[in-house]
User: Which sequence fits this backbone?
């Protein structure tokens, strides 16, 4: 698989992956499946251990992302951000082929095709090698939707938001109470505690920063979706 090293946050179906290299971690983004889902391969540079955020679809493409050489990373963990089927279509194949542990929030676990090996709650830490990722529970898109936060000691925070936060708004909800829950959690657990330079990586489409989206929070709350 071709991998672009000039990371912009944009990838295309059937196009190359894009890699961002940090001091302790590499983040490689690829689009998979008919719904243009984003999958993110995180690799600890010290240990060559890897974690995949959302084995969404196309197990062969995800296998190519991991690589086939003897130097490829060891995919120890697959995290599913929420229960919607477009985010776990390749979960069984990828986890089975790599002997990976699977991780999800307890409230979404029952829908997944592979029972999670590890159930997480808000504030828990999932590790990829020596790199800690904080679990942020964002209730509303689904009951157990989670984001993963990496606080890079040498730079900006990085937040993997699943379908809870996109450029332009929060994720889809099916009731006013679910929307209120999601916008409240995104406000209090993301925007109120993280700086503008935080880069976030959604489940579909391009990335953005909290600073780019912050001026629109009141607009999102007013429109109700």
Assistant:
């Amino acid at each position: 698989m071709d991998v672009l090293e000039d990371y912009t946050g944009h990838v295309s179906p059937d196009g190359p992956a894009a890699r961002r290299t940090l001091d302790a971690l590499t983040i490689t983004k690829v689009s998979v499946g008919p719904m243009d889902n984003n999958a993110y391969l995180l690799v600890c540079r010290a240990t060559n251990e890897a974690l995949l955020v959302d084995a969404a679809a196309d197990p062969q493409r995800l296998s190519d992302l991991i690589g086939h050489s003897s130097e490829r990373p060891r995919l120890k963990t697959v995290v599913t951000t929420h229960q919607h089927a477009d985010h776990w279509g390749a979960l069984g194949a990828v986890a089975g082929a790599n002997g990976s542990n699977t991780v999800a929030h307890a409230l979404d676990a029952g829908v997944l095709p592979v029972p999670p090996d590890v159930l997480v709650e808000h504030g828990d830490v999932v590790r990829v090698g020596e790199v800690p990722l904080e679990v942020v529970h964002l209730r509303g898109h689904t009951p157990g939707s989670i984001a993963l936060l990496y606080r890079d000691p040498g730079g900006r925070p990085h937040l993997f938001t699943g379908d809870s936060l996109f450029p332009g708004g929060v994720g889809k909800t099916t009731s006013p109470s679910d929307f209120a829950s999601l916008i409240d959690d995104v406000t209090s657990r993301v925007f109120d505690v993280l700086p503008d330079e935080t880069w976030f990586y959604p489940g579909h489409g391009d990335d953005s920063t909290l600073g780019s989206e912050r001026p629109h929070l009141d607009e999102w709350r007013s429109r109700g979706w």
